[in-house]
Amino acid sequence: MNKPKVIVTRRWPAAAEARLQESFDVTLNEADVPMSAEQLKDALRQYDAVLPTVTDPIGADVLGAEPLRCKILGNFGVGFNHIDLETAKARGITVTNTPDVLTDCTADIAMTLMLMVARRAGEGEREVRAGRWTGWRPTHLIGAKITGKTLGLIGFGRIARAMAKKAHHGFDMPVIFYDPYPPSDEVCRSLGASRRDSIEAVLREADFVALHCPGSKENRHLINAERLAQMKPGAFLINSARGDVVDNEALIQALKNGTLAGAGLDVFEGEPKLNPGFLELENAVLFPHLGSATAETRLAMGLRVVDNLTAFFAGETPRDKLV
Ligand code: DGY
Predict the structure, then answer these.
(1) Which residue owns the Cα nearest ligand 1 atom 6?
(2) For a substitution probing ligand 1, which of 80, 102, 304, 320 has the most ligand atoms within 8 Å of its CB?
(3) How far is the CA of 78 from the centre of ligand 1 (A)?
(4) C-alpha span between 24 and 5 (Å, rounded)
(5) Strands lying side by side in the sheet with 25-27
(6) What is the pLDDT of residues 219-259, one digit of tens each?
(7) Which CATH architecture has domain 103-286?
(8) Which of 4, 160, 198, 318 is most exposed, with the fewest beta carbons within 10 Å of its own?
(9) What CATH number has the domain spanning 5-100+295-313?
(10) Ligand 1 near 7 CB (within 6 A)
(11) What are the two backbone dihedrals, phi and then psi, of residue 285, each rounded to the nearest 5 degrees?
């Protein structure tokens, strides 16, 4: 039997590509340049499976490809806000993602951002590299203490819980969260976490607010000027979820006028383009979407896509089936 024809939209770790090639007839994107909407549409006409990433917007137009050959979108990543699931379902295309394997590393990036912005690590590094460091002094680059401070989580899924575990057990942080679908009391207790009834309640109480809600139409600009104004004076915002969950313009204003002490950001509205306002802010730590970027995790993500495809083409339900 012919192997299913599969296209990978961006380069993967070599070992994951090699594993994919063992079972499938694979086309790689050698240049690793994001595909255009037209190229994606064409891929849906020519391949049995398309393996996209967060950099491939797959909306109704792309999914309207005719004649349609693609039967499965095996997303390399946990977030799927770049794929129109409803239209995919209506067109009979299965969509899978890669949860679990990136939980810890993404939570680690949120912790890194929190530590860096609180301790002004980016500013310090820039000073050293620029040759501007004049030596130790009691008033130099004074940051905020993290141990014992309150961490507020908006969304309390897998990644948020991993962050809660690290923050509570490693840094003695009391954790509060808002999530319409909270876990059991036992899980909350084990993470030192208590639920609040609204986003506002978390914003008013937390010293550090970390966003862990999915990107979606409903969550676009969930954190807007009004909500930023409700955060505690001297508080910090951490975003490793999706850029458009925050109104970037409002955030820049809040960082400029001191409503917030600082922000640690791994994701941006319209990335990789950045609102130039961010670049002028000393109190913002800016990462290029590094949440899952470790060798172990990126390999595991690739292998998880391979598992999902293998199950699908064997006539089974892939374990990470979204629709
Ligand atoms: C994810 O897995 O969703 C990461 O943000 C990269 O896509």
Answers:
(1) 77
(2) 102
(3) 5
(4) 6
(5) 25-27, 5-8, 49-51, 72-74, 94-96
(6) 999 999 999 999 999 999 999 999 999 999 999 999 999 99
(7) 3-Layer(aba) Sandwich (3.40)
(8) 198
(9) 3.40.50.720
(10) no
(11) -100, 125
Prediction pTM value = 0.97
Ligand 1, atom 2: closest residue by C-alpha: 77
Site of tokens 């693609």 = 70
Which residue intervals of the chain bear CATH 3.40.50.720? 5-100+295-313, 103-286
The candidate with the shortest Cα–Cα distance to 309, out of 57, 10, 34, 7, is: 7
Q: Which amino acid appears at position 233 of this protein?
A: P
State whether residue 262 is helix, strand or coil: strand
Residue 31 half-sphere exposure, CB side, CA atoms within 13 Å? 3
**For 121-176, how does the pLDDT look when each residue is reduced to its tens digit (9 = 90+)?**
999 999 999 999 999 999 999 999 999 999 999 999 999 999 999 999 999 999 99
How would you class 280 by CB atoms within 10 Å of its CB: exposed for 0-12, middle for 13-18, buried for 19 or more?
A: exposed
Please identify which residue in the block is written with the tokens 């993290």: 146
**Nearest ligand 1 atom to alpha carbon 97:** 2
Catalytic (active-site) positions: 242, 271, 289
